[in-house]
Design the sequence.
């Protein structure tokens, strides 16, 4: 009977891996972060919920965002096993990191203090936990420790499949795909053909942009007789297809997963939403989100981050602002890319007080996070909103960063901004600087400058603009001559009016109606 109830070391390792990569319905109420968000924002209960959300928003590591989803694991006996290991390994981890520049000392510490501990856990979970701790701060250093472990395997302490899987994942994270492939081949040669080994290499391919190799490896896994894809396998495949915007293939993979009776988890749905956002399939994105809110697998913080990006990209500002209010604390502190996406959404869509909202979001972005495309967008928005001072600040910022505007639309917006403010001298200075900086120059700025000079009766300066046009190999057009005709007519310069009329006849342009004899 003892053998019936005893859980082997290998089974413990498999269960630990399962909890790392899958989620089940929690037996205890989830923490505030995972509770469904409510659309209503006026009730006192919802305001209290939002305050609670901000207080409890966790620090989420870039490479381990889904760890906090598994409450059942935290409450399980296996969690206590891992907690005990974490405490035991922490002094060793710190000592290794203190000697990170001296591999000789590192290997000596491992021999003296690590070897006995690792041998006492034949399933490999002790070494896997050490790699977890080292990999979070220095993946490249973790690979050096892994090499030490591989050498130990030659002296009677064989590596386990979980150790190989962890090594492959860290190699992928370190952009060392060749090492990941080498570890995979080494593991399979030792008859460690497990789904976790395949998943690890698929993940390494995914993280390094090798989508074709990832899909090919998935087919190899399906052809294996004794193992079958897991939910983690399909999560990786869905993510790969979604990143390529292969939405039909992604949906087919999701359906295949369900046909195998694999229950989707929050990562599955998040990857689907990510794919729909990448492919701009907004109705499917919204449908998946609503299905999560109504079903047993509730949205998590990553779901709301993806939906915020989707709403920003699609220009759905009302929904974007609602989601932002719910996760504002997290976004403001961690998600600069999302802040930029929201600014971009405001730039491309008309909304009340969009400049004020843009300025508030800009304050959250550090100066070192400069992006040329955002700088150009802001120039256009400030010009369209008649914010001349802010427009010029953004223009100066573009000049300082050697950012060149190459679109006629932005240049016309700038010129129109100066025209509405009747700032011809500022326009002239801008044109001079734009010429030197290699910005796209068309006739519009020069024609505008001529009109503005004419309105202020500065006819000589208006005429000098013709030389600027010639210097840029721009011929006089009908519009050029009409501007001069109107200016001379306005100030009674009959001789010059007749001269312009003669040029119009010479080039075959239609004469102004008022110039024709009655």
Sequence:
């Amino acid at each position: 009977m003892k053998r019936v109830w005893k859980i082997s070391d290998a089974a413990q390792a498999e269960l630990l891996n399962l909890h790392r990569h899958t989620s089940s319905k929690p037996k205890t109420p989830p923490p505030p972060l995972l509770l469904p968000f409510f659309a209503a924002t006026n009730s006192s209960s919802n305001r209290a919920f939002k305050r609670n959300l901000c207080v409890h928003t966790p620090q989420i590591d870039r490479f381990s965002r889904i760890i906090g989803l598994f409450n059942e694991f935290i409450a399980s006996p296996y969690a206590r096993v891992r907690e005990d290991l974490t405490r035991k390994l922490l002094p060793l981890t710190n000592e290794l990191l203190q000697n990170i520049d001296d591999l000789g000392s590192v290997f000596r510490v491992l021999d003296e203090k690590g070897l006995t501990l690792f041998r006492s856990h034949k399933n490999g979970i002790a070494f896997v936990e050490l790699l977890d701790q080292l990999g979070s701060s220095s993946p490249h250093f973790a690979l050096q420790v892994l090499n030490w472990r591989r050498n130990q395997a030659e002296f009677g302490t064989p590596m386990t499949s979980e150790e190989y899987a962890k090594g492959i994942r860290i190699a992928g994270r370190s952009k060392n795909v060749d090492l990941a492939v080498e570890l995979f081949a080494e593991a399979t040669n030792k008859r460690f053909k497990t789904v976790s080994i395949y998943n690890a290499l698929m993940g390494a391919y995914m993280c390094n942009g090798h989508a074709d190799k990832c899909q090919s490896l998935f087919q190899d896994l399906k052809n294996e007789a004794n193992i079958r894809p897991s939910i983690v396998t399909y999560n990786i495949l869905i993510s790969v297809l979604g990143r390529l915007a292969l939405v039909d293939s992604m949906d087919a993979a999701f359906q295949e997963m369900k046909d195998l009776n694999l229950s989707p988890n929050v990562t599955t749905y998040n990857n689907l939403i990510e794919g729909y956002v990448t492919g701009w399939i907004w109705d499917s994105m919204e449908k998946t989100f609503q299905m999560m809110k109504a079903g047993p697998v509730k949205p998590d913080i990553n779901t709301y981050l993806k939906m915020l990006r989707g709403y920003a990209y699609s220009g759905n500002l009302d929904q974007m602002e609602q989601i932002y209010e719910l996760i504002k604390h997290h976004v403001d502190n961690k998600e600069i890319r999302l802040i930029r996406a929201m600014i971009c959404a405001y730039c491309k869509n008309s909304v009340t007080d969009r400049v004020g909202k843009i300025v508030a979001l800009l304050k959250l972005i550090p100066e070192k996070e400069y992006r040329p495309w955002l700088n150009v967008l802001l120039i256009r928005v400030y010009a369209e909103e008649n914010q001349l001072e802010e427009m010029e600040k953004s223009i100066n910022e573009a000049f300082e960063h050697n950012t060149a505007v190459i679109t006629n639309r932005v240049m016309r917006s700038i010129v129109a901004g100066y025209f509405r403010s009747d700032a011809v001298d500022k326009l002239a200075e801008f044109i001079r600087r734009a010429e030197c900086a290699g910005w796209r120059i068309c006739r519009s700025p020069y024609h505008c400058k001529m009109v503005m000079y004419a309105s202020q009766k500065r006819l000589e300066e208006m005429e000098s603009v013709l030389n600027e046009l010639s210097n840029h190999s721009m011929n006089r057009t009908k519009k050029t001559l009409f501007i001069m005709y109107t200016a001379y007519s306005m100030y009674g310069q009959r001789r010059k009016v007749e001269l312009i009329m003669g040029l119009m006849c010479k080039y075959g342009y239609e004469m102004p109606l008022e110039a024709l004899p009655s």
The radius of gyration is 32 Å. The chain has a mean pLDDT of 85. Residues 20 and 67 are 7 Å apart (CA to CA).
